[in-house]
Amino acid sequence: MTTQLALSQLLNGLQLGVLLFLMAAGLTLVFGIMSFVNLAHGSLYMLGAYFGAATFANTDSFLLALLAAVAGAAAVGLVLDRFALTRLYERDHLDQVLATFGLILFFNEVIRIIWGPGSIFMQVPEALSATVELFGFAYPAYRFAIIVAGLAVALGLYLLIQKTRIGMLIRAGATNPHMVASLGVDIKGLNTLVFALGAGLAGLAGVMAGPIISVQPGMGEPVLILTLVVIIIGGLGSIRGAFYGALIVGVVDTLGRAFMPTVMRALFERNTADAAGPALASMLIYLLMAVVLALRPQGLFPAGSGATR
Amino acid sequence: MSALWPTAIDWRAPRTWVALGTLALLLVLPLLAEFVSGDGADFWVKFATRVMIYALAAIGLNLILGFGGLVSFGHAMYVMLGSYAVAIPTEHGITSGWLHLVIALAAAFVLALVVGAISLRTTGIAFIMITLAFAQMLFFAAVSLKQYGGDDGLTVAARSDFGVISIAGHIGLYYVALTVVLLALYLSWRAVLSPFGLVLRASKANARRTLALGHPVFRFQLAAYVASALLCAVAGVLLANLTQFASPAYGAWTLSGELIVVVILGGLGTVFGPLIGAILLLALEEALPTLVEALLPAYKANWMLLLGLFIFLIALTLERGVYGSLPERARGRQQP
After folding, report:
1. Could you say which of B123, B304, B316 has the minimum Cβ distance to residue A87?
2. Which domain holds residue A124?
3. What is the ipTM of this complex?
4. Which regions of chain B does DSSP assign to beta strands (E)?
5. Least Cα separation, residue A95 to chain B (angstroms)
6. Which residues of chain A have a CB within 8 Å of the CB of B316?
7. Is residue A228, in this structure, part of any structural domain at all?
8. Residues B204-252: tens digit of each pLDDT
9. How many domains does chain A have?
10. How far apart are the C-alpha atoms of A288 and A298, rounded to whole Å?
11. Does a structural domain hold residue A128?
């Protein structure tokens, strides 16, 4: 029983981890290549969830919902990049933080105006509503599908970045964008492409998370903070770091929430433990990040050495 | 203060006029509120007190953000710490304001020393994130304090007792807050012009070169970080007294973001900018809902959209902030 519980919590952690990876991949690339801090990345995740939920409710097709979420978020990312953010790339991180902080408020209200302030419901697709048999216990098929899809996207990203010409340019851009530009590569186009790609991935994460969390205004912020933790732990600008960082954060956070109260109960009296357990579990990943930053300020898998592998 | 070398104040410069005009207005504000809105005066005095508290925290943040060039995304945690330094002792029957102040300052000093010493090992974006991480940790620590309200926060039964300086009334609290802000303005002005401030500003321009000149940059940055945390803790003490409430929400990361907005809106690295920024932002947060209600009643609840756009446009266009964009010298005196 306990092993099963631990295993299923581990899978939950993996599932959170791959979602975080989808978010972190885009954010870390945008940071690596454009040196741009995009706090509004969480808004793209929220938009993806809303686009997906609305499409799913209207068409009953989860595939169309996926498509709408990815394409919609990528399109918003494209417009943002072209018309608003380009001017900020050369500016101070501080201006970028401020501008995208403003965008968070803006997008939250846009969502409130269109879909109302409450949360909207998104159903688990029919085909994935059952459970799958894994290592002798039942696990929700939809969550399992998220893990599989996330790992597939991670593999696809790896192939894209390691084996294609575009990927080569992205890697070069992450190492030295000015050199790439002076070699005659259209760095602006590359920037836009990377930004839209990251936005699409965030939208995908949003729509996949839709059925298991509540789709509501402001849902992007907690995820954004987790994603920032991921890319800092993994090393800024590094896809590989984002991948391992996401899995570490996902698993640590989930296991912490599941078992911290029990551990606390063994150490302290019941009342104290019940009160402090959940909150301390929420602190775990920040503690992890602080320790990583204090010991290895460049993160666990920094970009540059071996770049974005 | 954009020049590296301290220069005398130009009494004919637009900046000086705006600063002096603002101060004069703040000094007579309660009278003005009484005269203009009579019974509604309390609201305006309380609002102005909130502005002063934001300004104080922003003046603190400006020390490290504006003059040190270090973006702390976690300064709200010191505000929260200050508010709990009032709420928790009051819960146990200790109402002495001086004691609250001492607890707030001591706690913020120790926390800032530890957090600063760890965070300052990093620079740039990593510094932003590690300060955010510590603030989130403290936020969740406050949430876990179930015996002190946890998530819901803690009501402060009565305002702190500062003996002869009574803050029981709204006007008394306002003048105390205003005095503290003026003191903080004066101190940060002196600090920035002092050799200490010079090294701090030099480290913003180029930390490595400053270090090579033989200045222990880390110690200067840590001192500035601790000083800025102390000012935020005092702001927290005042905030808990104004709202008679302490809550983890005071340490939320959005508040840290708002403080950064205040500093930048006013003008990064100007002594007076944070005060102007606080006035502008809070006035906007007060005016926008009314404005939207008047023009488009259906969208009354969505005024934050305009605030978001406004912040975005400020970041895009106004690199030196509102106060920072005002000329520092009168016409024809560009070269001091």
Report:
1. B316
2. 2-217
3. 0.77
4. 154-155, 245-246
5. 5
6. 84, 87-88, 95, 99
7. no
8. 888 889 889 888 899 999 999 999 999 999 999 999 999 999 999 999 8
9. 1
10. 14
11. yes
